[in-house]
Amino acid sequence: MIQIEQLRKSFTQGSGRKKRTVQAVDGVNFTAPNGRITGLLGPNGAGKTTTLRIAAALIEPDSGTVRVDGIDVAQQPAAALARMGVLSDARGLYPRLTARENIIYYGRLHGMTAAAAAARVDVLAKTLDMAPLLERRTEGFSQGERMKTALARALIHDPPNIVLDEPTNGLDVLATRALREALRRLRDDEGKCIVFSTHIMQEVERLCDHVVVVAHGRTVAAGTVVELSAAAGQTDFEETFVKLAFGAEGAASVFGAEGAATHTTAGSAA
Ligand SMILES: Nc1ncnc2c1ncn2[C@@H]1O[C@H](COP(=O)(O)OP(=O)(O)OP(=O)(O)O)[C@@H](O)[C@H]1O
């Protein structure tokens, strides 16, 4: 289970008169239980990646907490990461290693024995339907093949929690469907807690048990697709999302989403 409470994070850019503070995350809250797929849905710049980077102990929050199975990520990052598989947008693989070698290497970094890592690769190859890829060097892999290998690598230590940042980016329809199928299997057969971020409504409608809508760095709504649509008084989920994420000015704001989704304050002159 992943619990995020009152998360805040700002970034400062430039210096002197050009100094700007971007409030990337400004009060994100949600709980992602085991055996469920939780979608973090928000427009560009809403703070999804920053939230997931904090959850994965890649950056520290200004305030707020992330707990993974009760473990505070900021206080015990290694213990939390041992219980978490993270697929970020950087899917760097070692090109000269085969898919199997790439995956096993991460298992060894997690302290697994060679035999345990090898056995786990065979299980993952079935779950992710990637057995034919295993002995190929990853150099020249397609986006879908890279994604599967990176996901297997993230899951090598059999973590109960899985965090994916925009996992379908760059995938075609078949690769996207294969990923969805794999995530459903991980939820249904292994009871994993799965959290993924996206700005694609159809992704959320097809896959998520629970949706957390993030806008302007904040959680603005949470529930099932049906609950959110009912609360917004809409039958169409795209309309629901626009209403929840952009409010009454909805459609007009969509075109200014980048600016509308963050709060910037000019810094004082040095
Ligand atoms: N390292 C950084 N330095 C400065 N600003 C940052 C940094 N990381 C993120 N931001 C800013 O914080 C805001 C939130 O960014 P974030 O990447 O978390 O949004 P997102 O919801 O993942 O967006 P997208 O869907 O476009 O990937 C954006 O305005 C972004 O420019």
Please characterize this protein's 3D structure.
- The chain is globular, with a radius of gyration of 19 Å.
- The chain has helices at residues 48-55, 77-81, 99-109, 114-127, 143-154, 173-190, 201-207, 225-232, 237-246, 250-254, 257-260, and strands spanning 2-13, 20-32, 36-41, 63-68, 71-72, 84-87, 161-165, 193-198, 210-215, 218-223, 263-266.
- With 270 residues, the chain is an alpha/beta fold.
- It has a six-stranded mixed sheet, sandwiched between helices. The protein has a five-stranded antiparallel sheet with strand order 5-4-1-2-11.
- It has eleven helices and eleven strands.
- 38% of the residues lie in helices and 26% in strands.
- It has two domains: 2-83 and 159-266, P-loop containing nucleotide triphosphate hydrolases (Rossmann fold, 3-Layer(aba) Sandwich), CATH 3.40.50; 92-158, no CATH class.
- The model is unreliable at 250-270 (pLDDT under 50).
- α3 packs parallel to α5 and α8 (225-232) packs across α9 (237-246).
- The chain binds adenosine-5'-triphosphate.
